[in-house]
Specification:
binds magnesium ion; two-stranded antiparallel ribbon; alpha+beta; 467 residues; nine-stranded mixed sheet; binds adenosine-5'-triphosphate
Length: 467
């Protein structure tokens, strides 16, 4: 009998609680302490000021299961979804943290104890990386843990050296990988095939050791600290004896629900994985207060929703389907995140309205794209076509790129950006962007598209909250 994802989450927190760590709830996907960050993308984010010494807490050890979104900004895994076995736009990062308490040696011991004793992973399937000159980490892995030298891989790239910014806390990392077996394509970290899914990174241990000055010198931090992150879905896959994150209990539930609301025939269709992934990021983003819009966080949300709608459509969905998955998500994750159930109605409404708006233009846009592709020579979709789809049919450029990729094509990003720049300039010159732009769209006889400016959308949102 395999452990469920929920049980694994609990077991991790219990283990670190037994090592005197304070169990801290996940913080919001909208970082409260960092305006430069698009979304919370790691467990350490809510502790940033503690690491910097600017905030003090009544504990020096903490553990959490942090909800994360990596769909924009520095970490963007949107394009990986549906293609790799290990990436989501939304995932949970299990972590343990030391604020000037224990350092490398204990961080390594704790991680190894959890993996090999608590959840009993076979040692021979594990290998680790260290930063190339981190002799301390090498000693701990080889002497304390007893790993043979060929299982400790030295990496000299930034993959194994973490920094908070250009200056400030930084230090070497040590990552733990699991070998899913020869039958899967891929090579060990540092090899040319490392991007395959045979050796999957499960846990990153970050040792905050130095304070980088603006002239580049690295002074030892007065309080050396530890930040770790392990993907819950990745460890769940291993413990449930499957290769892909999408095969774990939680995702099987979501995929079954996605198949039923879209009338999908082939359970292995990559679009099902995309839809199952996207309902998590969209529902949690809305639950944390993000609303679809034309800029910033809201535009990332809108892009993810539209991608999901396109994939659902491809699977055979008739009419709006995406909002119907909120119930299935609550079934899978409602216990760990009670706020989801509390906000079910709002989340469903926001998704449904967004879907309906886009649904009106999706088919027409796809038809235009199809028609243009049949006449296209070469394998690059021209920037002006990408722009037209964006401007008239509400296709975010990444959605067009997603369609393109399925046909081994790419889009002309630069050409698209140039069209965008021209539009921005014209709008500035017109001086009254909103009104003119919308009138023009509304009078376009080929479409009943109402425009996507934020005034129109916020009016809709106000309606939602009114009833
Ligand atoms: P990868 O190299 O596989 O993209 P990463 O090095 O970008 O992972 P980290 O930033 O080190 O990941 O994050 C810590 C851990 O969080 C990873 O070891 C992994 O288990 C998990 N993780 C990272 N990104 C994702 C994702 N998009 N989906 C699911 N889990 C993830
Ligand atoms: Mg990554
Ligand atoms: Mg990595
Ligand atoms: Mg990593």
């Amino acid at each position: 009998q395999h452990m469920t994802t929920a049980q694994i989450r609990q077991q991790f927190l219990d283990f670190f609680a037994s090592k005197q760590h304070q169990v801290v709830p996940s913080s919001s996907l909208i970082p409260g302490n960092d305006a430069t960050l698009l979304f919370n993308n790691a467990g350490m984010v809510q502790f940033k000021d503690v690491f910097l010494g600017a905030e003090s807490r009544p504990y020096t050890r903490a553990t959490s299961s942090q909800r994360c979104v990596r769909a924009g900004g520095k970490h963007n895994d949107l394009e990986n979804v549906g293609y790799t076995a290990r990436h989501h736009t939304f995932f949970e990062m299990l972590g343990n943290f030391s604020f000037g308490d224990y350092f490398k040696q204990d961080a390594i011991k704790f991680a190894w104890e959890f993996l090999t004793e608590v959840v009993s992973l076979p040692k021979e399937k594990l290998l680790v990386t260290i930063y190339h000159d981190d002799e301390e980490a090498f000693e701990y892995w080889s002497k304390d843990i007893g790993l043979s030298e060929d299982r400790i891989i030295r990496i000299a790239t930034s993959d194994n050296f973490w920094s908070m910014g250009d200056t400030g806390p930084c230090g070497p990392c040590s990552e733990i990988f699991y070998d899913h077996g020869e039958h899967i394509w891929g090579g060990p970290p540092g090899s040319p095939e490392e991007d395959g899914d045979r050796f999957i990174e499960i846990w990153n241990l970050v040792f905050m050791q130095y304070n980088r000055q603006s002239d580049g010198t690295m002074l030892p931090l007065p309080k050396q600290s530890v930040d770790t992150g392990m993907g819950l879905e990745r460890i769940a896959a291993i413990l449930q004896g499957v290769h892909s994150n999408y095969e774990i209990d939680l995702f099987q539930g979501l995929i079954a629900a996605a198949a039923s609301v879209t009338n999908a025939q082939d359970m292995g269709d990559k679009s099902l994985r995309v839809v199952a992934d996207h309902i998590r990021s969209c529902a949690f983003l809305i639950s944390d207060g993000v609303m679809p819009s034309n800029e910033g966080r809201g535009y990332v949300l809108r892009r993810i929703i539209r991608r999901a709608v396109r994939h659902g459509n491809k699977l055979g969905a008739q009419g709006s389907f995406f909002y119907k998955l909120v119930a299935a998500l609550i079934e899978q994750m409602g216990q760990a995140y009670p706020e989801l159930a509390k906000q079910q109605e709002i989340i469903e409404k926001v998704l449904r309205i967004e879907e309906e708006q886009f649904g009106k233009t999706l088919e027409r846009g796809l038809a235009i794209l199809e028609e243009s592709l049949s006449e296209l020579k070469g394998d690059i979709i021209p920037g002006d076509l990408v722009f037209k789809l964006y401007d008239t049919y509400g296709f975010p450029a990444d959605l067009t790129a997603d369609v393109a990729r399925e046909r081994q094509m790419t889009i002309d990003h630069q050409g698209f950006e140039e069209c965008m720049a021209v539009q921005r300039k014209t709008a500035q010159q017109a001086g009254k962007f909103g009104a003119d732009y919308n009138d023009q769209l509304k009078s376009d006889k080929h479409t009943d598209f109402k425009g996507y400016d934020s005034t129109h959308y916020s009016a809709t949102v106000v309606e939602i909250f009114a009833d």
